[in-house]
Amino acid sequence: MSTLVPAAVLAPVNASVAIAAPAPTTTTSSGGTGSSLCPNKQSPPAAEDDSENPSPDSAPPTPLPVPSDPVGGEQLGNCGFVLPADATAKAPPSDVNAASWVLADLDTGQVLAAKGPHARQRPAALVKVLLAMVVLGELKPDTQVLATAEDVQAARGGATVGIVPGARYTADQLVRAMLLKPGADVPNALARALGGVPKTVQKMDALAKQMGALDTRVATPSGLDGPGMSTSAYDLALIYRHAMQLPAFAEAQTAKTVLLGGVSVRNPDPLLTSYTGATAATTSNTTNAHWTNLSAATRGGHRLVSVMLRAEVDQGQPYRQAGKLLDYGFSLKDANVHPVGQLVDQAPPQPQPSESATKTSAAGETASREEAEGSGPMYAAFGNVGMPLTAVAGVFLLAALAMYLRKKRAKAARAARTRMS
């Protein structure tokens, strides 16, 4: 059974800060982008339960396409550690055991260091940042949402935020509560308000693609495991940065508690009280995602975000590992190292087809149009305009034919009279 554990506050915003390109001197400590060296280049690790099995009438989702050029820079296409080449740079903490992680500057978007940044993993509750962005973009804060038993059942027996079936809540209350605490009940209620779970998932996917989060495919709005669920540490850092540029999201993140029907909802993540400068902390887990964490902190005028995916607890609780990763990130900022990549502001342009391919495509479209409208240029002259012009042309043709026949009969009559005389 997949369950969710403590999540934290996150907020939507667009990026408009000056960006410094990665320096060409950056290097990777381990590389290779082939499938043998990058087992999760296309898909997350195999599921450990049946939560991702498709329904009997559905085919398994195919892997998302892998961009030919890694989003954020060439170095980020590597599968192992992606570290600054600067001699002053320290090694990453050895007791951070996440399969993938990213450290980035929220203001500049620079990726400071990473491990398997585009390796595809599962997000668990971290995907709710994306849901919050959709909600903030489509629902008014005072939109009333009626909680139902379906919302509680959506948790599959796991964690819930605590809404009560039959009670009404505002969209603003639900978003704040969702970002403070993990649970599938509130995301399900918000998804219903957005038009239903399938439609909400489509909206989340579309927004992710628009931002350039091309490793991300949502299966459930809460982050519970489901068929085709996929993301990457890079994508989640990117999504969070965009979210933090939305004033409503950034403001929601400052909340320590939220009243939900008279019940106080708090963020239970210990990082918020144990790490100096912490501004956000979200830890969650599911059977197939293992442990995931998104944390943010501010020190010395720098705002950093760390994302860890598929972490284990054998080397310390995820929040402790996140703290060590943030310490490493701030040490890199203090050393003024060159970035290894960039959190993009929007999806990179798609490859344009060659000129010959474009001409072939255009010819094919013309042929298809003519086939649909008739069979060639002569028919198209009428078919493109429609039946009225065709009818008018028919009238003219009939009139011309009648005039021709009258002239022919008159000529024949004159000839007959001449012979008689």
From TrEMBL:
Cross-referenced Pfam families: Peptidase_S11 (PF00768)
One MF annotation (Gene Ontology) recorded for this entry: serine-type D-Ala-D-Ala carboxypeptidase activity
Bias kind Low complexity: ranges: 15-30
Enzyme class: hydrolase
This enzyme's EC code(s): 3.4.16.4
Biased segments, Polar residues type: 354-363
Spans traversing the lipid bilayer: 385-405
Disordered: annotated segments: 15-79, 342-373
All residue ranges annotated as the Peptidase S11 D-alanyl-D-alanine carboxypeptidase A N-terminal domain in the record: 89-311
Signal peptide stretch: 1-20
Keywords: Carboxypeptidase, Hydrolase, Membrane, Protease, Signal, Transmembrane, Transmembrane helix
Name of the molecule in the record: D-alanyl-D-alanine carboxypeptidase (Penicillin-binding protein 5/6)
Organism name: Kutzneria viridogrisea
